[in-house]
Design a protein that fits this description.
heterotrimer; A mainly alpha; B alpha/beta; C mainly alpha; B: alpha/beta; 5-stranded mixed β-sheet; 18 helices; C: mainly alpha; MetI-like fold; 72% helix; globular
Chain lengths: 288, 426, 293
């Protein structure tokens, strides 16, 4: 996808309009950077401030005397290790499952001919507009009947399929020339072999994109684990953070420290996979 | 060759996923042959108290080798009720739940919990060791459903330094004195009183003390009619409204006004709170603090709180084992150490009368304020509709304090709704 | 293309996981929620007696339901429109050769990456009585106190947080859209005498971004309708229900008030509203004259 995209003039193309305009543009850009960036800086400053500074509001503009102990305390109070583990299990499992279900369905929708193919594709895509909150109660009842509430099943299985992933793989597989599978089929390979040996390796950019976006979404998800878990032993990091606030509402230095810690994995992934994340979002927009 | 490899990778992935899923499934079910595993959910805030309870659980397990209890902390109580309701809806309740007995009727009427009283005889439990007033907080339809775990009530925390600076030498004992003192204490960014705000139970629980002090009641004696919108109720709510209007009070954190932040930073000189923060207060060095009884209007009154153990109905053996633990909790062996460590008040008469506990009260006057006030304590009715009635009162308090409605209109509107809830869940 | 008659079994194998899961976790729940909305249920009882339209009637009779709908619309449009305008402006700014453009892109996209719980908590601190906003306006002599404690300010404040969080996402999509517009087109326009700036934007850029805008509008509407966690951690729906939106209200009905029938009615209502809005958007963009030609 990334490759074909670039040929058509994707995000890194030269199609920029000529540049004009002087200081107003500078001013706007600086202002925007300040508005969007300053809260991040301030959260870090807050996470390193003393209790007294937070309660009186005398937070220094730069943490000259950083209270690193806040991080230790925040970690200890929230049972963080367990929550990180839970979230990792949930996020990784959902990511793997979504890649599997999406690539299989995307392949079938792009490269296999059968009646009702377009209707089926629409049937998947239509789920994207249904807010999860609308169907959450029936899913809760279903999971309760299965005795899955407060287990990893409840955190993983309902999100094991994602129409966005199906869409992503389908679009990607559509761009691959037909000669690829014809050659393989002539060799007597079955569709499974064609997918795994020919298409799967080619689809790496789509896989990386979906994996990164899914992992981040899962790491950040709140409502689903909020409804489907009950004890702290099953909490994810976001639930832990919200519960932490319930007990230490105004102890902002510890809260900010916890906030910084749980945001680190996401920023790390962004640092390494920036191109895939940005293009994944951009492509769904320009082709959706 | 290549095909083989990808096949293995796929199988490995599947195996990994099912292993993860199975790992998650193994949390609840008891698999041992004769050992009974119980889950015990609690919202005890102080880590030291949690540690104490865990230690007592270990001791209990030595006495009852066939029972194993795993403690799970659920955090803030106000957010726990929806969670526990969803747990019951999901057929996945804990065996034991530590929560306010006001919710007794709600779970009893849904047949989610077991009436503790049915297990008194078979286990040889002498219920007269428990303060009758506390035992009554768990009575629904004539039987005791929930077992008292700890007790507490409300009093006023005050900042001694700010009182000195304002020249206040004796604690206010009436509503009028309290308001006057709050006004005296309000200056230079400091407010006299922190007004609890939010429509959740914390706000309502405190307001109920004013309702009683003014001579009002939540319900009529036969519990068929809500009566909190009486003249006494309006007076109670107006007292708060006037306090806000006179700028002698400021709102606490929304829905979390039990937090101590503003009190510890000196932003407020007084707040209403319970004895369980004693440990946290002792540990800080920002504020010289003390406590005095709630001021009275026509009557003196405080709200009896504390938590009880709810035994959720699972299997007869597990119910019985859960009751064994509830029984153990009421013994002095559990109570004295628990109460002197946490600031909670004893539920057991022998524990309260023990010389160890009496000595503790003498050397901790802060806790003694709460202990003495229990004499004027009243409890919330443990009826099924309580949490709905409470939510309606919470809305009325918010509407009045934010000036959206007069106190009378807000309470009347809430009473209409609460009456419907009471009728639907008698 | 692989033909069906040669591989029906493979087809089933490939599609079954996605179809089964989609039915189990989207289409079955959608049907069930509509069914549940015409039944009384407290979430616990084994009986679910038929209720007809009673739960809908009760819903509309709730004294705060009107407020909840108003909050929801205020929130959805209050976040969507400024979020899109801001996203497009940022994209236009980032699509220049301004030396700051890379920093601008990364920084304005960063809020999208953090969770709503984290962002919400950070903004709770900023709003608190000793927080940054109070100190800043304090310099000008105002002392509003905790912004989230005030019914008139709480919802606007949550909306501002939301726009801050989503603008960078919109920027990324618009930036990609802008970059598909070739320079030649602008140059040709310049030859035709079209001036710079607003005129050029109106006559070339905006029409060519039609599809992008359609997608951005839909996705923003969906995101905004779903908003729960930010409200949960920032205000708990208060004060005086000022930030209770439909999604939050549904959760309270089901899990606080045990009223699953009414919660299902509210959910169904929300489903219908979302479908109508999406359908209207589809129609609008499908029937509007194609200005590309």
């Amino acid at each position: 996808m990334m490759r074909t995209k670039r040929k058509r003039g994707g995000i890194r193309s030269n199609g920029r309009p000529p540049d004009r305009g002087g200081w107003p543009r500078w001013l706007w850009a600086s202002l925007a950077i300040l508005v969007f960036g300053f809260p991040f800086y301030w959260v870090v400053v807050g996470s390193l401030s003393s209790n007294a500074a937070i309660t009186t509001g005398d937070v220094a503009w730069f943490p000259f005397h950083p209270h690193w102990i806040n991080y230790v305390q925040a970690w200890a109070y929230t049972n963080f290790t367990r929550q990180v583990l839970n979230t990792l299990i949930m996020s990784l499992a959902v990511t793997v499952l979504q890649v599997v279900t999406s690539s299989l369905a995307g392949f079938a929708l792009a490269r296999m001919r059968f009646p009702g193919r377009n209707a089926l594709f629409l049937g998947f895509i239509a789920t994207l507009i249904i807010p999860f909150q609308v169907i959450a109660l029936p899913i809760f009842v279903l999971l309760a009947d299965l005795h899955w509430i407060n287990t990893f099943y409840a955190l993983i299985i309902p999100t094991a399929v994602n129409a966005f992933g199906i869409f992503l793989y389908r679009q990607f597989f559509l761009t691959i020339p037909g000669t690829y599978e014809e050659a393989a089929m002539l060799d007597g390979a079955n569709p499974w072999t064609v997918l795994w040996r020919v298409f799967w390796p080619l689809a790496r950019p789509a896989t990386v994109t979906l994996a990164l976006l899914t992992f981040i979404a899962e790491w950040n998800s709140f409502y689903l684990p909020f409804l489907f878990t009950q004890t702290r032993s099953m909490y994810t990091v976001q639930l832990g953070l919200a519960a932490f606030q319930g007990e230490f509402a105004t102890v902002y230095n510890l809260l900010m420290a916890a906030t910084v810690v749980i945001s680190i994995p996401v920023f790390t992934l962004y640092l390494f996979g920036q191109r895939y994340i940005v293009e994944g979002i951009a492509n769904t927009g320009t082709r959706g | 060759m290549k095909r083989m490899k990808t096949g293995h990778a796929g199988q490995a992935t599947l195996a990994a996923i099912s292993a993860l899923a199975l790992a998650g499934c193994g949390t609840g079910a008891a698999s041992g042959s004769s050992v009974i595993h119980l889950t015990f959910q609690e919202g005890i805030q102080s880590p030291a108290t949690q540690k104490y309870v865990q230690g007592r659980i270990n001791a209990f397990e030595k006495l009852h080798p066939n029972i194993q209890i795993s403690m799970q902390n659920y955090g803030a109580a106000d957010t726990e009720i929806p969670k526990i309701q969803s747990a019951v809806a999901a057929h996945n309740p804990p065996n034991l739940l530590w929560i306010a007995p006001a919710y007794t009727g709600q779970f009893a009427s849904a047949s989610a919990i077991v009436p503790a009283q049915q297990l008194f005889k078979s286990t040889g439990f002498n219920s007269s060791t428990i303060f009758p007033g506390l035992l009554n907080t768990g009575v629904y339809h004539g039987q005791v459903w929930t077992m008292p775990f700890d007790a507490n009530d409300l009093a006023v925390y005050y900042n001694k330094t700010l009182f000195q600076q304002a020249g206040i030498t004796t604690a206010p004992t009436t509503w009028a004195q309290f308001l006057a003192d709050a006004q005296k204490l309000t200056k230079g960014g400091t407010y006299g009183f922190e007004m609890p705000i939010g429509n959740q139970e914390w706000t309502v629980w405190i307001w109920e003390t004013l309702l009683w002090q003014a001579g009002g009641h939540l319900l009529n004696p036969s519990r068929t009619q809500v009566t909190f919108n009486s003249a006494a109720g309006v007076a109670a709510l107006n007292y708060w409204v006037n306090m806000m209007k006179s700028h002698a009070a400021t709102f606490g954190p929304l829905n979390q006004s039990y937090q101590l932040g503003d009190f510890l930073s000196g932003k407020v000189a007084m707040m209403i709170n319970g004895p369980w923060n004693y440990g946290a207060l002792k540990a800080q060095h920002q504020v010289r603090y003390g406590a005095f009884p709630l001021p009275k209007d026509k009557y003196a009154a405080t709200n009896i709180g504390g938590e009880s153990l709810f035994i959720f109905n699972t299997t007869p053996a597990a119910n019985q084992a859960a009751f064994e633990f509830a029984k153990y909790v009421t013994t002095p062996a559990f109570q004295i150490g628990y109460d002197t460590g946490s600031g909670y008040l004893p539920v057991s008469i022998p524990a309260e009368n023990s010389s160890a506990y009496q000595q503790y009260l003498k050397s901790n006057p802060f806790i003694n304020v709460f202990a003495q006030q229990m004499a004027v304590g009243r409890a919330r009715p443990p009826i099924p509709a309580y949490s709905q009635i409470s939510a309606d009162i919470g809305n009325a308090i918010e509407n009045a304090l934010y000036g959206r409605m007069s106190a009378a209109t807000a309470l009347n509107q809430a009473a209409t709704q609460a009456q419907a809830a009471l009728k639907a869940n008698p | 293309m692989i033909r069906l008659h040669r591989s029906p079994l493979w087809l089933v194998l490939f599609l079954a996981p996605a179809i089964v899961l989609t039915i189990a976790f989207f289409y079955y729940p959608m049907g069930y929620i509509v069914w549940l909305s015409v039944h009384h249920w407290n979430g616990l009882s084994p009986q679910k007696p038929f209720a007809g339209m009673a739960e809908y009637r009760h819903l509309f009779q709730e004294p705060i339901f009107g407020l909840v709908l108003r909050n929801t619309l205020e929130f959805v449009f209050g976040t969507t429109i400024p979020g899109i305008v801001l996203g497009l402006s940022l994209a236009a700014l980032a699509n220049t050769r301004l030396p700051l453009r890379n920093l601008l892109r990364s920084i304005s996209f960063a809020p999208y990456l953090v969770s709503f719980v984290s962002a919400g908590l950070a903004w709770v601190w900023l709003a608190s009585s000793k927080g940054l906003f109070n100190q800043l306006v304090g310099l000008a002599g105002f002392h509003p106190g905790n912004l989230l404690n005030q019914p008139s300010l709480a919802l606007p404040y949550v909306i501002v947080m939301y726009v801050w969080k989503m603008a960078g996402y919109n920027m990324v999509i618009y930036l990609a859209g802008l970059q598909t517009i070739s320079r030649e087109l602008y140059e040709a326009a310049a030859l035709d005498g079209l001036s710079e700036g607003w005129t050029r934007f109106r006559s070339i850029t905006w029409p060519l971004l039609r599809e992008t805008t359609f997608f951005v509008v839909i996705i923003n509407l969906i995101f905004s309708f779903r908003a729960f966690s930010a409200i949960y951690v920032m205000t708990g729906g208060g004060p005086v229900h000022a930030t209770t939106t439909l999604v939050y209200y549904i959760w309270r009905l089901a899990f606080v008030h045990d009223n699953w029938g009414q919660a299902a009615a509210a959910s169904t209502l929300m489903l219908v509203v979302v479908l109508i809005i999406t359908g209207a958007m589809l129609r609008m963009f499908a029937t509007a004259p194609d200005q590309k030609a």
